[in-house]
Amino acid sequence: DIQMTQSPSTLSASVGDRVTITCRASQSISSWLAWYQQKPGKAPKLLIHKASNLGSGVPSRFSGSGSGTEFTLTISSLQPDDFATYYCQQYKSYSYTFGQGTKLEIK
Amino acid sequence: EVQLLQSGGGLVQPGGSLRLSCAASGFTFSSYAMSWVRQAPGKGLEWVSGMSRSGDSTYYADSVKGRFTISRDTSKNTLYLQMYSLRGEDTAVYYCAKEGGIDGRLDYWGQGTLVTVSS
């Protein structure tokens, strides 16, 4: 199975900050990568697909980049609603796998 | 509007069985692959199982292979996850999710249903 490693596990930031989360795959997944946002008690929400494509209705302050084995999710200017946990997911091949998550906390 | 309405969770004893359902609406169910993802309490997301849009192909995580069965009934627009030989480590919130039309992104999710395996 393809392993996905996210960093950092926890990130403390302030409203208005620019933040970046990294996801690394154990082998090349081309651009078959998605990012999700999850808030406590809620289902995950698709933010980014195919590494850099914004999901439907997702604000433009979210962006994704990368290909092969290294990917990033960037939030250009943090808003109060953005404090949540973020997961990457590879879908190059079954079994799909997720990163362990990055919890974005208010500093 | 795409909706995935889940049912069937609950408390079950170790070694027991349970079937989860996911009723789909707002899209052509037979045209999309579907997946199940779970989340143990306080933990991250784990993909569990997937089924092709035709239903001909099924896929499972190693952790559930041989114990769980995914299926779909296109006449009822419903996805199922039959779980057998349940263990404590299967305790989790289970989500069904619709895959994107041309790739495996999970673009819509159900509300989740809690499965607790305990004596």
Question: Describe it for me?
Answer:
The complex is a heterodimer of chains A (107) and B (119). Helices cover 0% and strands 50% of the residues of chain A. Chain A has strands at residues 4-7, 10-13, 19-25, 33-38, 45-49, 53-54, 62-67, 70-75, 85-90, 97-98, 102-106. In chain A, strands 2, 4, 5, 6, 9, 10 and 11 form a 7-stranded mixed sheet that branches. A 4-stranded antiparallel sheet of chain A has the order 1-3-8-7, with no helix packed on it. In chain A, strand 4 (33-38) and strand 5 (45-49) form a beta hairpin. Chain B is an all-beta fold and 119 residues long. In chain B, the strands form 2 sheets. In chain B, strands 2, 4, 5, 6, 9, 10 and 11 form a 7-stranded mixed sheet that branches. In chain B, strands 1-3-8-7 form a 4-stranded antiparallel sheet, with no helix packed on it. The mean pLDDT of chain B is 97. Classes of the chains: A mainly beta (107), B mainly beta (119).
Number of strands of chain A: 11
Structural class of the secondary structure composition of chain B? mainly beta
Number of helices of chain B: 0
Output the number of helix runs of chain A: 0
- Please report the distance between the alpha carbons of the first and last residues of chain A: 36 Å
Report on the biggest sheet of chain B.
Answer: 7 strands, mixed
Q: Classify the helix fraction of chain A into a percent range.
A: under 10%
Structural class of chain A: mainly beta
Q: What does the average pLDDT of chain A come to?
A: 97
Percentage of residues in strands of chain A: over 45%
